[in-house]
Specification:
3-stranded parallel β-sheet
Amino acid sequence: SCVRKSSVVVTGVPTKAYRLPTEWIQPDTTVVNVASFKNVDEESLWKVPGVTYVPMVGKVTVAMLERNLVRLYENFHHPDVRLKAVGDEEEAEGGTEVGKITTIPWYGSALQIYTAAAVTALLALTVTRSK
């Protein structure tokens, strides 16, 4: 359901067997393939009105994706940032109790860990296979 709502779709499945169903792609969508395999049937994709398709990306693009992934972690999911955000919320609510230490995991759910690991692995595979 997420793909059907998205205006940008990035595929990166490292297998020849996977194909993104083109009926999921909405008009005026940008589809970017970062995998070393073509994960989209190009002929049927071009039949979708207004679609922009990037069949492959280069090493620099993969490196920038990895850099942005690290920046997302550092800016939003790093333990120090998360603890600071919790402290700011508590101060806004009227202060914190002395001696109370609030800790929360740096991730919001197991899905976030899986997604970060999967994207990193896919990007690493793309870089190593393109050499």
